[in-house]
Design brief:
- The protein starts with a helix and ends in a 17-residue tail after the last helix.
- It is built from six helices and no strands.
- The protein has a domain of 63 residues.
- By secondary structure, it is mainly alpha-helical.
């Protein structure tokens, strides 16, 4: 879903963090002796990467909200991520809307 659904600007900004978090999860699973399932998942994801990229092109062509509007709707507080907190922000009017 990260490859398919992340807007272009956010993709570049968040990819390093996404890769680091994935690597940490792999280390955690390895320490628990549970590495087989994550490796199968990674293998399946890489095998289906061309399909995900095609779906990404389709989704990005049909999008109606810009990258920065999505970024404003997201929480950027690491404590929210680590605490698995639900953060609901009030919807702001789109800058693209006509006056």
């Amino acid at each position: 879903m990260f490859v398919k659904d992340t807007p272009p600007v956010l993709f570049g900004l968040t990819l390093p963090l996404h890769l680091a978090a994935t690597a940490l999860l792999f280390v955690r699973h390895a320490m628990r002796g549970e590495l087989a399932a994550p490796l199968r998942g990674l293998k399946a994801a890489l095998k289906d990467l061309p399909v995900a990229l095609a779906a990404r092109r389709e989704a990005q062509a049909a999008r109606t909200v810009g990258s920065w509007e999505i970024a404003r709707a997201m929480t950027w507080n690491p404590a929210d991520l680590f605490g698995r907190r639900v953060v609901i922000k009030p919807r702001r009017p789109s800058r693209r809307a006509a006056p």
